[in-house]
Write the structure tokens for this entry.
Amino acid sequence: MLERVHAATDALVSAGKLPAGLDKSRIVVEPPKDASHGDMATNVAMVLAKPANARPRELAEAVAEKLRSDPLIAKVEIAGPGFINLVLKPAAWADALHAAVVAGANYGKSAMGAHKKINVEYVSANPTGPMHIGHCRGAVFGDALANLLIFAGYDVTREYYINDAGAQVDVLARSAFLRYREALGENIGPMPEGLYPGDYLQECGAELASDYGQALKEMQEAEWLPIVRERAINMMIAEIRNDLMALNVVHDLFFSERSLIEGEPEEVVFTGGATAEVIVVAPKPPPPDLVAEAIAKLRAQGVVYEGRLPPPKGAPVEDYEDREQTLFRSTDFGDDVDRPLMKSDGSYTYFASDIAYHKSKIDRGFATMIDVWGADHGGYVKRMQAAVKAVSDGKAELDVKLVQLVRLLRNGEPIKMSKRAGELILSRDVVAEVGRDAVRFMMLYRKNDALLDFDLAKVIEQSRDNAVFYVQYGHARGQSIFRNGLEVLPDLPADPEGRAAVLAKANLALLDDPAELALIRRIAQFPRLIEAAAEAHEPHRIAFYLYELASEFHGQYSLGTKSPHLRFIIQNDPKMTAARLAMVQGVVGVLAAGLALLGVSAPEEMR
RNA sequence: GACCCCGUAGCUCAGCUGGAUAGAGCAACGGUUUUCUAAACCGUCGGUCGCAGGUUCGAGUCCUGCCGGGGUCGCCA
């Protein structure tokens, strides 16, 4: 439709009624919020009025005149300040539905991405324990976003960054070492302050005990620590991968932070749903220090210097010590203060290796990167974007999606967790209780930057109040209609492709009831929705759209109760039945496609 | 003190990147079933879009300043 409006304005330009060279980018043609305003509306006259030095309504009349001759347009009206409302002929909706049915699972796929490479990094939970519910939200969000971007035509790489180089993995190793001594029969008492108290390291300790016996105890810490650390990290990553698999969250690549510095890949190869190889970033020997390289590059650009920082505001830092340090001039890029790259003991800060990591992404050809982080990392966004800008010479772009906290409830009552005992609520426990579909859908049924209340009791309720159930029921109901439709159309194939091929041949012009046309209109919005959601990096829009589509479908179904002639299956009228089932096919196809993007199953029946 | 996010119906939230009379669900009240799944549907009630300015044909949406809630603030992860 947009092309038709453009054509109409072009015609006015060549007729000399409009000046040439107008900016047409702000012209939109879309379904109006209020259906009584027609099927489509355009703001063309209001957008062009000022630059063309014309009155909006007069200009609208001129454009409307051109559009009236279009064979698919039934009515053109001018309303309000200069909107042009279009009512399409039923044939236009028949065309739209036909396209949806024919395209099947490909309906809504877009070429807007043009195979542009995008890197989406999500989860990246530290390998120091199993995934908790906060990680879970980021995992589901990132996974669905990646699905969406692929559907929109981008070349997406899904990535997990393993923080296996910092102090916290040494803490992990010391904790595991205690569990090892415990496994050897020692009474270790309560876990000392600062170590990981969770009991998930007991298995690690037991393995170490059976593999090494007393040997590790005989060593100095410098000797046993790397051994224990590697074992513990590998086991924790295996844990996390299991948690990801339970959620059906996949990655293409697990990127080791340690490999940036040491050039050594972690020797972990996994198979299964969350499978991916760990990247080898450097040839060996000699292992180049990619962090040092990144810093050197920035230093050459003059954005790294030695200097002092003012003491931190807010909560007092106990061991603060004023000293000269290596700083990145992030203030040049809009950050509040410059940021340190080296710790006082001479090792790199996380920020330093994060710069090297993002440089690696840039070097691997990604000009667009999306990071999914927890909201507590919000203060980190500006400096990271600053670093990306600097290290890519302004060519690469980083979008950070902050995922807000999840508050778990049961029947409206917050579930309390005791951090003291190391008892965070685990992702796997929630999945086990309410199922993967409910977790995934509810995590996506909210904007990423809004707090999320997740009620364990409500998500397994079977009612309209439960969006997951409601949308899935829509899909199942459609399948049920196909099964019953066999009475009138005995030759209807059961497989989706075959069925769609048959139904596509139906005479769709028979669908002329206003409610039916409204439902088809909703189906026809799907491709545009995909593009808008992909553009904004907002998968939650799909979830909301599916809920609306399911709602209209349930409504349409119920109309048949009062008005039998509107039922999907009409005895003795195979032609009308075929047309109606084509409409159901359109709904079911979009529901299935949308649920697939969210990673939620589309059941055949609900019983 | 600075920065980031949030503030829309009694509650939980959408609002398609600036469009027309701001929408759903829940809650409350009323109705619909000899029916293709009532696990559903329809209706009624409910609003100073936190407040005040500004930008323009037009603001819940963009800008500025306040108010309220949350988060973060050198080497933590």
